[in-house]
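name: query_chain
kind: protein
chains: 1
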Amino acid sequence: MKYLAYIVAGIRNKPGRNLAAVLCFALIAANLFTGQYLIAGEVGSVDQGVNRMGADLLVVPSEYTQLLPGAGSDDTMAIVAVLPSTYRFDSDILDEIGTVQDVAGVSAQLFVTAVSIPDLSSSPINVYGINPETDFTIRPWLQDPLDTPLGTGTVLIGRDIQAGVQDTISIAGRTYTIAGVLDRTQSEMDHAVFLAMDDAYALASAEGSIPPDDPRIGVGGVNAGLVRVAPGADRDAVESRINQLGSAANVTVIGRHFSLDPIAQNLQGLPGILNTISAIVLIAAFPLIALISAMVAHERRREIGLLRSMGATRPIIVFLVMAESLVLAGLGAAAGIGASLALLSVLDAIGFLNSALQVSFRIPSVAEIGVFAGMTLLVIIAMATLSSVYPAYRSSTMNAFDAIRQGSG
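structure:
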């Protein structure tokens, strides 16, 4: 007997019923695959974000704290780039902070101005000065490593600025060449420009670059110092030492907990929620799959009786019933995974996943997607196997004569 031909014929003879079974398997597979995809993307995004947020502490003018309304998601930028402000202090204090015990690195940042360039960005473009030699918070966000260090006449731009590497951009009458583009951050960095500090001071001194009512920017003035704490060191202790040193200079320290921890805590529960939803769907769907398998076996009892009368053994009957269920499960799993992957790709392309999850969503790698698809397929196959065991066993134990008589009635 050609078992495959028999299974295919059985599926084709009842297209409506079997299509419903395939759709049921597809919905379950889509739910499982989507859950794992989102979990991996969300965890990867948080890990990537934490790794890129290299500053453990932020040294700012004491007045700067009034810009921060509270420890919430709106403050997550404070650990990567200083919020635009006119509050500044002399960078000499950062040299002293660099000598504090357990401080591994200090890098200055300067907010220069905000400019409107409609051809490049629908939002105002914030212009910052950074020290390329000491920066450890902006460079990690680069899409590609720089061919040459950031220097005079070159800039880094955020993802939402409509320009690319080697293009030129004009700010306050000065022309700069774009050396690199940052990954999307879903923050103000996406429409920001970063210059080397010498260029930032030169731009600040140009006529009309800064609003007339704003304080002038002198060489050496900075808005913030981003501090990296040595691995294993007590961050609170380092913060206390810097505060003692900076009290005379009217600067204060903002810890990472102020800006990063709230959003991390909000995201910690997402994997558990998604896994719980997947488990509920599996438990709820199992009786339905088992019912479909039982209905399939019941409808085909006459065929099974004929097979038994022609000498088919019980193991063969079990195999045929279960094989048909597994084929339907495989088709449904493939359809569900494919549809889910296509939909997720579209949602990511339009930025929906970033806004919905409140993170810069990281698409899982091809290898990860393959693992998720394989795991989903195995779960669906296992569910189909378990749900069809009893109907297959019942079919194999039917009396051939009774099966033919009941099937014909």
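note: Residues 3-49+266-408 form one domain.
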